[in-house]
Design goal:
The protein has three helices and 22 strands. By secondary structure, it is mostly beta strands. It has a four-stranded antiparallel β-sheet with strand order 1-2-3-4, with no helix packed on it. The longest helix is centred in the middle third of the chain and has 24 residues. It is globular. The protein binds beta-D-galactopyranose (GAL). Beta-D-galactopyranose (GAL) binds next to strand 5 and strand 13. Beta-D-galactopyranose binds next to strand 5 and strand 13.
Length: 376
């Protein structure tokens, strides 16, 4: 019996040493650098991205942006990089490529934004969702695209795009809203043009107006809960209200179960994660490429109620999220690949005139109880 504490101490020291080798407690300088070269010396081109940890390797998926003002149009697709130390990233190529097919929704010149990839244990496939805008249509399509692959790097096969949850009532829909949907169904078929001009444009109107056609979907992320249920979180209702929507067992479609959160508050760039049973949602305001203040909210159930906790940033630059906009959060892994309680918040420092040169800002999250604190 008496040698057990000793064995425990040795094991503890050993695992501490191993994790220290795997990831030093000091954040790498690259996380906050003007440019972050990959292992071949090129600035990493994976914007609005997210991380999938799979088979002991971190995979960073993101938008390949072009140069100049037109850089926001997709000419390449979604790029993926791999790393085991979160500092040195190797370009693993184009995971989802745009096509030359003039009939394809993902033809060159479309917009593919904020791609995220999750792994489906049941189907043994990788599923990518992204914000899709059709070539030549600005930001009007507001669709969610989905693609699948049998191996993590792809190539991902494009399945199609949707406006999620057509004709489906969100959880907690009020009777008044239900009435409005019914009334709209009548009036819209008669005077669509008049309605658009005569009614005040509110979040509620967007929701009601899109009810049967499917809800708008722009900035987005994915989240897989401990029970394997996946969720699609997106800015809907012309960016006025966020939707949190359950995905079906294949992760390639919506079940129709969803909730509208922060109604009319215009929040986007959602980052959602669960730490010790508490759901955290960090969002930005809607000011295009210009940075603004982040907001943090927590909930005990993903369906809410969500409690707004305020701006998680502290110190100089807190009002602009240190010149960035969030995109994802993930736990650092230990030497065995198990998630630790150290979390990274990933953000983009957009350069609207040279989007491909946009920088990144990765911050280790400090927690005070359930409060998220971000310091540069
Ligand atoms: C931002 C959004 C980006 C991109 C940009 C276009 O608000 O987060 O993903 O859509 O607007 O102006």
């Amino acid at each position: 019996m008496h040698e057990r504490p000793f064995v425990g101490i040795v094991l503890f020291l050993w695992s501490t040493l191993v994790s220290a080798v795997v990831f030093a407690s000091q954040a790498p300088e690259a996380w906050n650098a003007a440019q972050w070269p990959d292992t071949s010396g090129e600035h990493i081109n994976a914007h609005g991205g997210g991380i999938l940890f799979h088979d002991g390797v971190y995979h960073w998926f993101g938008e390949h942006k072009g140069s100049g003002r037109g850089g926001s149009l997709a000419r390449v697709g979604v790029r993926v990089y791999t790393s085991t130390d979160l500092e040195h990233w190797t370009d693993a190529g184009v995971a989802l490529a745009v096509t030359d097919d003039p009939l394809s929704e993902i033809r060159a010149g479309c917009r593919i934004e904020r791609p995220k990839v999750i792994f489906n244990e049941k189907t043994d496939r990788f599923v990518m969702w992204f914000h899709l805008e059709l070539a030549g249509h600005g930001y009007n399509a507001a669709r969610a695209g989905v693609a699948v692959a049998d191996s993590v790097h792809g190539p991902y096969e494009y399945i199609g795009s949707v406006r999620p949850n057509p004709g489906r009532e969100p959880i907690g829909l009020s009777d008044a809203m239900r009435r409005r949907i019914r009334e709209r169904a009548f009036s819209e078929s008669r005077v669509e043009g008049d309605w658009v001009q005569s009614e005040r444009v509110t979040a509620r109107n967007f929701f009601v107006r899109q009810f049967y056609g499917g809800q708008m979907a722009r900035d987005q992320t994915l989240f897989v809960d401990d029970d394997g249920t996946a969720y699609h979180i997106f800015a809907s209702e012309s960016n006025r209200t966020l939707h949190i929507a359950e995905l079906d067992e294949t992760y390639t479609g919506h079940t129709g179960r969803y909730v509208r959160v922060f109604e009319g508050a215009s929040r986007e760039a959602p980052v959602l994660f669960n730490r010790n049973g508490v759901y955290h949602l960090i969002t930005s305001g809607c000011t295009g490429w210009a940075p603004n203040a982040a907001e943090h909210a927590t909930a005990e159930s993903i369906w809410g109620p969500w409690t707004v906790r305020g701006n998680p940033c502290e110190g100089n630059g807190a009002e602009t999220t240190f010149g960035s906009q969030g995109t994802f959060a993930f736990p650092i892994r230990d030497a065995q690949g198990a998630p630790t309680d150290r979390w990274v918040f990933m953000a983009d420092r957009w350069k609207p005139d040279a989007l491909g040169r946009s920088a990144y800002l990765w911050l280790e999250i400090a927690f005070e109880g359930d409060r998220v604190i971000l310091r540069e």
